[in-house]
Write a structure and sequence with these properties.
Elements: H1 2-23, H2 30-46, H3 53-70, H4 72-79, H5 85-110, H6 119-146, H7 150-172, H8 174-199, H9 206-235, H10 242-270, H11 310-316
Helix pairs in contact: 1-2, 1-6, 1-10, 2-3, 3-5, 4-5, 5-6, 5-7, 6-7, 6-8, 6-10, 7-8, 8-9, 9-10
Length: about 325
Amino acid sequence: MSVLVDLIVMLGMLVVVPAGLRLTGAPELDRIRRLWPLFAVPGAVALWLPRGGPATVLAGCYALGALLLALHAPLRAVRASAAHRTAEIALFTALVTPSVAATALVAERSGHALFGFGLGILALTVPHFHFAGFAAALIAGLVCRVADDPAGTFVASSVPAGTLLVLIGYFIGDWAELAGAVVLTAGMWAVALLTWRTIRGSGRDRTTRMLFAVSSAVLVATMVLALSWALGEATGLPHPTLTWMAATHGLGNALGFALCSVLAWRRLQDRPEQAPPEQPPPDCPRTERPPAAPALTTSVRTDPPLTDLTDLKDRTS
């Protein structure tokens, strides 16, 4: 299981986090995104070293990058306008959760239990807060910016709330963790539904639509597994083992949801539609031209955040 978990974590460190930061369109995150390989590569190397000093130092490099990323969260929370506060809650969560994963990584690589959690649980905490934390919250925020209605608000609030409840459940007990799994599952299923019904059709090509479709379908299955595991832990009913969860729930969320979602959103932003035709000079005869489709702007703006999705919201509403 350890090899599979390490590969999943590497995907989160090296691909999902930097690609996700680019999706925010936040210029204040550009520097940390460009510097991210300086932190992520040592962290990825630490996964494959024996526990001890060298692995701990390299994991600490990744923890430093995650801390610098988390420091941007309070600033964005202060600058967020009231109209976009809910989406900012999701982005705030996305910026903070890698630091939780990095803390667990440092403890696990050093070979020391943290807050009473064994090394096995710490190792699984690292991918969990990269994907159920960073990726889930980021995508929820993007969906909220497009589906600017009660459903979008529910998505952007329930995913961070579920993530927080799961974290609290680590310390309180299995029933609290089950409550967090229920809230998080509801939020992720809402993400899948809104992606399927509202956003998938915005794809300009078959590949983009397919990536959105895969990410939506995978969420339905993987979150059922998450619920079954949390329910079994709380009640003692039969449930999948951690090895089985890593091979199904973990791998599915990493590849099927997080990677496909990030790629789809990136393609959606990178392939603007044809711009409106230029108007002829007043002294030239006007020729009839077919109307052009509205363009999806990818310009970087600072206030409000995530406004590179505004045209997409107008087009899908």
